[in-house]
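Form P-L/3: holo structure prediction, ligand adenosine-5'-triphosphate.
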Amino acid sequence: MEAIVLENISKRFGTVRANREISLVIHKGGIHAIVGENGAGKSTLTKIIYGMLSPDSGRMTLMGRPVRLSSPRQAIQAGIGMVHQHFMLIPDLTVAENIMLGDERSRIFAPLGIENTARNIAGVAEEHGMHIDPFARVGDLSVGEEQRVEILKLLYRNAEILILDEPTAVLTPTEVSQLFDALRSLRAAGKTVILITHKLDEVLRVSDTVSVMRRGRMVATRPTPEVTKSDLAQLMVGRNVLLRVRNPPETPGRTVLEVRGLTCRDARGGTRLSNLSFHIRAGEIYGIAGVEGNGQSELLSLLWGMRDEGMICSGSALLDGVSLLGKTPAEIGSLGVSHIPEDRLRHGVVPAYTISENMIFGRHREKMFHRFAGFDTNGVDDYTREMVRRYDIRCDTEADPPLSGLSGGNQQKVVLAREIGRPGLKLLMLAQPTRGVDIGAIETIHRKILETRDRGIAMLLVSAELDEIVALSSRIGCLYKGTIRHEFSTGEIREGRSREQEFQKEIGLHIT
Amino acid sequence: MLKKLLPLATPLLAVTAALLLSALFIFATGRDPVAIYGKMFAMTLGSDYGAGQIVFRATTLVLTGLAVAIPFKVRLFNIGGEGQALAGLLAAAAAGTALPEGTPPLLAITFCSAAAVFAGGSVGLFAGWLKVRHGVNEVISTIMLNFIVHAFVGYMLTWHMAVPSTVHTTEIIESAKLPMLDGLLGIWKKSPANMSVLFALAGSLLCYIVLFRTRTGYEVRAVGIRPEAARYAGIDARWHVLGAMAAGGALAGLAATNLVLGYKHYYEAGLSGGAGFLGIAVALLANAHPLWITASAFLFGFLEYGGLTVNAYVPKDIFMIVQAITILMILALPKLPLVKRLQGLLSPRSEP
Ligand SMILES: Nc1ncnc2c1ncn2[C@@H]1O[C@H](COP(=O)(O)OP(=O)(O)OP(=O)(O)O)[C@@H](O)[C@H]1O
Ligand SMILES: [Mg+2]
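OUTPUT (holo model):
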């Protein structure tokens, strides 16, 4: 039976045709993946299904009945739920309270019966293999657990169709497996799942059907067992994509960053970094492999001059002999350091600012953008146009719309372009550089990273994707409990690339 | 075109709705709303003197409105416009009496204005400092500073500065007085409208330019919209908090040019007339946009003086209710489903 039938759905934003005459059938009781380049129109399509956007034209049929949803509230009543990339939970309430919020199933003055509900929630969660304590405070949960709460929230509202927009981008590999188990279990219970992702392996692993979008059109819908990864890549991008870039040998120069004996204790006395030492030379990429929460974010914020309140640190971090500790982000940036934070859409941009305003955000102190007390708007526009071209950012530069009008992946590229383009760059710190971008863009970004390396720039790469670490790094430090537990040399990595699977397992041993 | 006008729709709708509701009130007090409104328009916009009164009131409100709007851009709610304005009024009066008679006008006016700006700015800056240094919530500190300044100004007036057996200070020197627009241009006969209206307009324009055309404004707005991202971009929010509070206080203080240098020529108890508080409403109505604040201030000036003109027929309190209803309407209207649907229809999503 068809859960959703879309006929000729179109949606425009100004001159951008985000969805063009899309027709699609989504079967009940299946997991339907949607893939496509950044800006292909995936999020737009799902937002239309969820009633957040209304289409300019086209029809939608839900469980055999024609519907017109004009708000998420109506969608939820019709049995459609969506998990957004940024969760909308209240940190100070418990899991059960968050789930019940806005849907208390009793009259206002009746007791909430939270005990009962909590038991129900725990029951439903267990049933689908999602372990969660209904009385835990949401603020204390990990990202993966928060996502479970969002899913449970939808189940509690009797959603029959669940839409997940890039749910795996923020998860660790174990959490991804757990999520997929839950999705399979939901499928077995007759629910329908629509899943957007950029990771083709995940599509093959979990979906029954896959649809490919390109530049606003639906170009193919196939049963998953009938396609291969390179078929999908070809359909998405329209050309052959290198799933792995060629990594020519590096020629490292002088030592640029020298971190020695870094030890940090947080306000509560817990050790976050312990006697951490490594160095990075010009023209090499130092990869940090590790499970999230072993000190990656502390290391990066420390090197970027953003020590948390109450954190006490000792040791040293020298950039060409100049200490970075105790300096402000502005000072560190002017020394020739760029930082691409992990959560770029929150920390790297101002969504209400235009593309060109974002293209100089954090670099707005540079003389080249200045004219009197304001900005040299023509200069900034030219620079933006150049970067948009070089990084293949899909947007309308002439109109220079607010950044929020760009697709998620294209927003990421703006940050990347800006930070790699910093003049006098010596050290580039990258956290999860390809999170949320499509495979074509991964190829472009990996090329840019290697190009930048070969310009003689030292790079610190933190990534949860072992493939990425192995493919790009000159040396790999295995971070465990705040210290580098093992380091792989350039020779070992070159040799390891020829037996990828085993090598990744070896790295895995050092980080758990 | 439609897109440009859309932001205007809500305030206009709110004002219209408020006037209609108020008509009901007037009707309920047993009078004919049409006649009352007719009289009100005739005596304000329809008369030279009335128009001048609106200009005079709007001048103060532009400045106290900006005093709220500027800190608002860095997510601070400055309730202290009243205290900052009071400090400015007293400082201007004191400066104007301290100068020797015969000081050249340009010098005298500059000196008095600077004193007012400095006094108001310091009060604002102090609240900013409390926030940055000790994390004191600015709403609380500015309210408390209102009390403190109010008491201090009262004390200074009664014990040190008042002309015996009056509640006002001695008059400022002749050359520190701002010319009346009546005398200068021959318009708005005998009304208190004076040259300081130019200061207010310049202030609003300057705020607009600084906020939207300079690098400082770029940073300030970023701090307001995305504080975390601003931090990563190396923008030190603390300086912007201090700057915005000081600028807000200074603008409120500048109201002294209108009330002291332009109108009364001395400080007297109650001179501010609550304009500092009304500034909050002015800023809200304009959505804290420095240019729209001018329009908003004129509307409130109109309501304020309009209420006075029909005082004999309808209690002035009715017009205070109109003002309050207008604000509530503005806050509530965009939330109504009907209005949302209207905006949806008007929004430019399906242009060919
Ligand atoms: N609110 C908006 N205003 C203007 N343009 C928009 C808006 N939302 C999306 N667009 C445009 O519509 C197109 C499709 O965007 P959409 O977010 O659907 O892409 P996507 O396939 O989800 O991409 P990604 O993988 O990067 O998330 C993009 O070109 C984007 O710039
Ligand atoms: Mg998207």
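COMMENT: Residues 62-289 of chain B form one domain.
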